[in-house]
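lol so apparently i was supposed to do this last week
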Amino acid sequence: MQDADTLKEYRKQCQEALDDDFLRQAMDAFAKAYRTNRVKAFAGMNEKELIAEIAAAKDVAISRLPELYEEFRFKAEQAGVHVHLARTAAEANEIICRIAKDHGCRKIVKSKSMTAEETLLNHRLEADGLEVTETDLGEWIIQLRHEGPSHMVMPAIHLSRYQVADLFTDVTRKKQDSDIEKLVKVARRELRAKYIEADMGISGANFAVVETGAIGIVTNEGNARLVTTLPRVHVALCGVDKLTPTLHDALRIIKALPRNATGQAITSYVTWITGANACATGPEGKKEYHIVFLDNGRMALAQDPDFRQILRCVRCGACANVCPVYRLVGGHRMGHIYIGAIGLLLTYFFHGRDKAKNLVQNCINCGACKEVCAAGIDLPRLIKQVHARIQNEEGHPLPSVLLGKVMSNRKLFHTLLKTAKWGQKPVKEGTTGYLRHLPMIFVREQNFRALPVVADKAFRDEWPAIRPRVDKPRFRVALFSGCVQDFVYPEQMKAGVKVMEGHGVAMDYPMGQSCCGLPLVMMGESKAARDVAEQNVKAMDAAQCDYIITLCASCASHLKHAYPKMLEDDPRLAEAAKVFSAKVIDFSSFVSDVLGLDKNDFSQHGGQGKIAYHSPCHLCRGLGVTEAPRQLLRQAGLDYVVSAEEDVCCGFGGTFSMKFPEESRELLNKKLDNVAASGAGELVTDCPGCVMQLRGGAEVRQDGLRVRHIAEALAERKK
Amino acid sequence: MQTTSKTMLDTFISKAELVSARVSRVKTLEEAFAYTVALCDGKEMCPLLVSGCELNLSEPSMQLCREKIGKIIAAPGLDQEQSTALRTLCADKGMELIHSGLRRHLGGLDIGFTVCDLGIAETGTLVLNSSSEEVRLATMVSETHVAVLPVSKMRGTSYEAEPELLAFMGNTPSYLAFITGASRTADIERVLALGVHGPLELHILLWEDN
Ligand code: SF4
Ligand code: SF4
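anyway here it is w/ iron/sulfur cluster bound
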């Protein structure tokens, strides 16, 4: 449970997690196994279509929650169920305590419910003198340890068998072996006794099916079946977002949920309970059955045109499973109660700004979560938006405001960048292209990678001299460089121009272009980000060209996906932004797919050894481009070797690496280790940000790895 | 009546086996009874010890272990004639057959025997109407669940089974179970372990009733 007051304290907590060897190793093994299992689980299915259908059906339900609740209540009450609606977490707990009191219950068994974690139900029940036992094995373990879950599906993933054996030794007062099978059996027997004694069972619910008045519970252990059968009273606690019109909706979700959660086609059990069932120990042989629906901000969220999609979440946990940050720091640091990407969002809406303010910054914007989300939620974008909201509510930190001010004034920003060239003189390391001493603001923790200097001459200043003349152009294109290639790595742009030259491409470099604005989004400066988007849309004048080409994956994905969204409410710009977005293309795709460069365009002799490829987050997931760059490497006669986890983030994330240097360093080193293991002497990629991170890291490690933009490697081999 | 294609059956079998269910075919219900009794008879575990009782348990849990004597098969939901047939087989082997009062056996039973209502081939899933508390308990507290699935009740996908599922749920109160493989957990170090709460084994007998 993340509860740090300040960002500094939060970073300290994250560092502690980074130092936990067992956790790191467990998370790594899990991340790798999960990727393979998930692919297997969805093999032969149209996963994207299924996810789109789930999203669409959920959206329909979200737009009618109050009616669905009323309809469900009517149905369920007819079948003898008591239905309650709790506005807040405290109210839900209150209702459940009252039910326990009214029916003289003393001992409670619970099956897993994230909603009960959300309301901190156990604390409240125990305060009332009730004995509560969690029966899901993982939940029981963390309950005994007085911890919160570290994963929504595998709550005790942070613990080793030895820790569990010690814990069970304490509980049973008998020495326990660390053999997992035996530990599971001990839990089986110990918990069986609890079920028998209990007079109340509390469960969660994955679905509340309106057409039948049924709840559906998805479990592997089968504990929910005992919890809902043995005790005479059953209370199901269920978020109102679980209301769904038809059984079909639920069956559809079941096709994705277990596959996405654990790579299973379906869980061992899915239990459908409709009405008050037979119960030998209940009043008149019937179960005393209550369903408590929890609002806790959901109804209001359902009204928010943009954030409402959060309610689509089916709690599969996949967004944590693939998150590189989760993999590093684990669930106790990457969530308050809900964990992973969705946890960052839900914490703000369910638990408030204070709990969320540090958490939301711990996202590197790699898009891995969005790629796998069972409900098609645009998680990374919404995370940035929550960050922006929090800043609007709390006031923006000064550096962030300054950055916003400077960047939304292109002339000022560019003047500063050019001036930086003089300022860095005393710290510049000879002619190596790196800063020797980091300026004060970059304190020591940044020295895990060398930082580059600002180039002597910006690309924009070189452009008039190098612009190729084209008589009968096949294509008219506008180049968008982004700040890094304009001011730090102009040679990458020049290489790109060289590759495209001679193929009938009339290139233009509109001088009014500025930073794409992604760094501003990362800092939570949404107003400034919108302003630069407007400037760029105007400056690039998409109507005059066939393509807008960028060699920066992050710029490309931001221009293409974020611009139309940011400008959609502005009638003057909405249309232009759409036209603009449609024309944006990344360099590799343009060269490979549009120009169709192949073997004949490149020398096939004298390759310089093995070359590895890093697939930038914003290219492979942001734009869905995976083949073009690899294809180009092969066409250019280069000995491309596949390295492990090519599409896992390098840890740059722009300003993320400044805010969370410890995590950035870990990701970087992992990446460079994988490249080293492939035996490659050179690494190329499609993004200047990644180059900055990877080259700087290789420089510090001194492992002799050459890092370049793919355009540079191609230009060198062009005939 | 739908005919069950061979591919559908093959899919069911392979999916069920993937989650460690043991699938066999039987021609008659009698054959299923014989299978069950033989299975119970051959159960390696000491008849006086239910799973987990050999380990170091806390005092109250040990207490629960001491309650069971002899081998017990629970088969709620059988009609008179079926019940008699199974009882005779059990008696031969000195086993007890019960079909009600399962709450007296929460410490553990050897085998729970049920005839299922539907099968879903795409996931190897059994659908069991568990509105009777005895049926629920038989499939939860027993160490082994023997489930007979009439082949005529096999459906390809959950969507194809949907109208029938809705009919079960519409008959309130209703407790409907999808069962796919044995009870499992991977909560400790993500290592798969079977039988954490419910049955440790699931045996599926495909009854070729058509
Ligand atoms: S965008 Fe990447 S870092 Fe951010 S939450 Fe999603 S997976 Fe994690
Ligand atoms: S946000 Fe998406 S991936 Fe994350 S738990 Fe919810 S449904 Fe699963």
